[in-house]
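Following up on my earlier thread - several people asked me to post the actual chain instead of describing it. Fair enough. Here it is, all 186 residues.
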Amino acid sequence: MLPKWCDKYSIHNKAIDEQHKKLFELAANAEMISDKPIHKGQVKFLLADFFNYMKEHFSDEEKYMAKIGYPDLANHQKIHKSIIQSMIELIQNIKSTNDLKEKLNIIASKWLLEHILKEDMKIEQWHQEHLKKSHSKHDTNTQKTYEYICLCKDKIHKVSYEIHQKIQTTNANYKCKTCQEYIKLK
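Reply from S.P.:
Thanks for posting it. Predicted structure:
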């Protein structure tokens, strides 16, 4: 039986948490139909809904990780691409309605929820540790500067504590004047 959404799965980003809740619901629906007679068209509709929602969620989640400067973003993006590619391959090789239901259940339980419960929790753990370090640095030296990078080769942007806090805790984004890309924590 699949777990149900609870606050311990939160990454403390309202939009991403709402998407995770929706994905938990879709997973529960997939599990619910897995052992019931159902028309192939209904299963295909649920699978398409799942697939499209996952792609949208992965895109939003990657933007969030970039915004907070998550250091394992590239690896996380590879995992997302792998999940989507595996879904495409599963969809292409469907033989029967039961096969379709079984594959949908695999997507829901193995990939999606395992991904949220393991990989996405790593984002939250890193973010909380990063915020604690940031707060403790603030307590000891508010005049400290933080180094940010952009796409310019060997360019370092020195950022004050106040600007750093804005970037880390709000929707503030700052672009390099040279390359016009958002700066990220080094």
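The mean pLDDT is 82. That should answer part of your original question.
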